[in-house]
Structures are given as structure tokens and as C-alpha cells.
Amino acid sequence: MMFFQHLTLGLWGVTVGTYLAANTGSQGTGIFSSGFVGFSTAAGALGSIVAPVLIGFVSDRYVSAQYLLTAANLTCAISVWGMYQTQSELVFFCLLLAYYHGFIPAVTLTNKIGLRHLKRRDAEYPIVRSCGTLGWIMAGLFVGLAWPMITGESIESSRTPLLLGACAHVLMALLALTLPATPPERWGTKVVGIREAMFAKGSILGNRPLVVFLFFSILASLPSMAYNNFTNLFLNRSGFPSPAALMTVGQTSEMLFLLATPLLLARMRFKTLFALGIVAWTLRYSLLAIGSMFEISWPTYVAILLHGPCYTLIYIVGVMYVDKLGDPAHRGAAQGFHAFATTGMGHLLGALTVGMTQQVFLTPHGVEPPPYQWVPFWLIPAAMSLVTAILFMLTFSPIPATPQDEQ
């Protein structure tokens, strides 16, 4: 489940920025405007604001999670197929928005299904989730290495990865039907309304420790959009070989870090792990800026390797901590709120920031050829991460253990 769910986006999500840039302004078909690569990242953020919370609530109260997962992946398949076909920027963005309204809830549903059926979640979930990272790695190797070896040409700046993604989502929709039954937690009991589930004492927004954690999750995930959407383009323009395949080195680091997470959780406080994740983002962007400034490659390779702590300590540990803080009866909705905070509000604010910095430093309107000033572009998210790390360490108090933590 984890392998195929994350492979679907991995087939095209890494290279879509390169495809958009190849058709921006006077380049290629010219259907995309200056700044669209950055601003298009808002689609994923907008898809994380309402949809995962709503679908999570439905899975908690009305419909089995595996059926909702099938529906979400079919939505993704139709949307990405439309993106492959369209020659309109507006239509592309609308379809991208529809895609993430399916994909983000799909990811939260896989988290819920995994956490629901694992008996030793702290020890087993990171290992299971590492299979999702493996799926992303295999997708990058296929697009970046296998396809060029077989056909003799790169597809990283083409729309072909979109077609591959559509086919993969159809397969994932079928796979979801074979997963263990995951009915609502209170199947057969009194149905609790969404207002009570969201706002009552001890529920989602009535859970103060959970709300505090979600706030810092927004700040911690905000700077990540520069790396997520521009690294492949940066590697291509800087002459690095097989950029999509090279970026899978980061996913390999992520998978190794996931396997080490149970040991880290047994030895280090949550506050320490989360803070280290934020600092890792600061170091990553600083290295990219150094590599750009001095035109040397080793800082870029190290920055890619840092994907393990950058992603795992902010996003994956966050998923596990939300599961501990929340009532199991609200597990789906709690995971939806975590997606709202990280890939929703955090990425939305990050997308707006990265879109503006793209217009200023990379592809300013009316400037031909585009200057692509990478040094200031990378230093801005580095500064944002540093400020977040300082704020977190100065203001965040360790959250007391809940009864669920002590079990």
C-alpha cells in the first residue's frame, strides 16, 4: 500500500517543475506564465486544507477507509490524465488542484490504515512507511535512469511522466480494494456530529497539546516548497547528471532514517528530534547556496543526502505524534488536521513565498534570458528555517505524556 501510493506521485511530481519551466514564457509551447512553477505549488497546499479533514471525518464515522482510498486514487488518475492532455495554464492548475484534493486524503488514509492495524506502532510504522519512500525511489530511478536507458532520451522536461502517473493511480485504486477492512472506529454506535468531533473537550481542536503541535508544524514545513519544486530544475540547469535519479539519493537517506526512527524515539525527546529536523532544513538550503555561489558540487550532494532528517523528523514523526495525542476515535480527522497544517497551510504559505522569489531571482518578467540567481533564492528559505528553529526552542514547552503515550 505505502509503496504504490507514493510511487504514483513520484513518477511525475519530481519532474513537473522542469516540464513547466520548459514551456514557460518563450520556452517550448509557452503555455505557462512567469512564476507559475512556484505558484502552482499552491495546489497541493489548497488540497490539504479541507479535503483531508473532511475525508478523515467520513472515514471515522461513515465509510470504510479502503473504499475511500479507492475513490481518492480514481480522482487522482482522472486529474493527472487531464493534466497530460491540456494545453491551458488555467485548466492545468484546476486539474492539479483536483489531483491534490484526491492525493492528500489518500495519504492520510494510508496513514490511518497502517496505524489502525499495526500492534506496535512506534516500532513498526516507520518501517512500513519506509516502503512508501522505496516506491518514490523506484519511480525516480525509472524516470531518470531506466527510461533513458531503454529509449535513449530523457522525459524529465516532457509530459510523459504525467501519463505514467495516471496509470499508476488506476493500479493503486484496484490495490486499495484488497486491503484489510478498516471500518469507522465507532461502527454500530451513536454517530458523533462533526461539530462535537472537532470542538468538544478532548476531541480535535479541544485538544490543546495537539493544537500547539500543529501550529509549529505549519512553521516547520513552510520553507520546504523551494526544495520540493525547484531542486530538479536547479540540477538540470546546473548540469548535474540524471537529476531525477540523483534526487532519489535523498529518498534513500529518508528510508534509512525511517528505519532508525524507532531507535531515535527510544533515546531522544520529541522536542529535540523536531528541532533537529528544522535545523536540518537550514543547513540544507545553506549548502545549496554555497554550492551555487562557488560553483562546486559537493554541497549540493550533501544537501540532497539531508533529506532523511529533513523529511522524517518533521513529517513522519509528526504523523506518529498526532496519533499519540489524539483519541483513536478521531484518528482519521486528526491525521487530516496534520495534513492541513503541513502540506496545507505550511505549503500554501511556502508556495506563495517561493512564487514571489522565483519572480524576483529566477525568472523575472521581461528579462531574457532569465537570470536564475540561485544564491539568494536558496538563502531565503534558509533564513526562514533558522527563525523557526529559534522560535521553537525558545517558546515550545515539552508536552506532557498522555495516557496513550504511557501504554
Automatic annotation (TrEMBL):
One of its GO terms (molecular function) is cytidine transmembrane transporter activity. GO terms for cellular component: plasma membrane. Keywords: Cell membrane, Membrane, Transmembrane, Transmembrane helix, Transport. The keyword Membrane applies. InterPro entries: MFS_trans_sf, Nuc_H_symport. It comes from the Bacteria. It is found in: Cell membrane. The chain crosses the membrane at residues 32-55, 67-84, 90-110, 131-150, 162-183, 204-224, 244-266, 273-294, 300-322, 334-355, 375-396. It is a multi-pass membrane protein. Its main location: membrane. This is Nucleoside transporter YegT. It comes from Bythopirellula goksoeyrii.
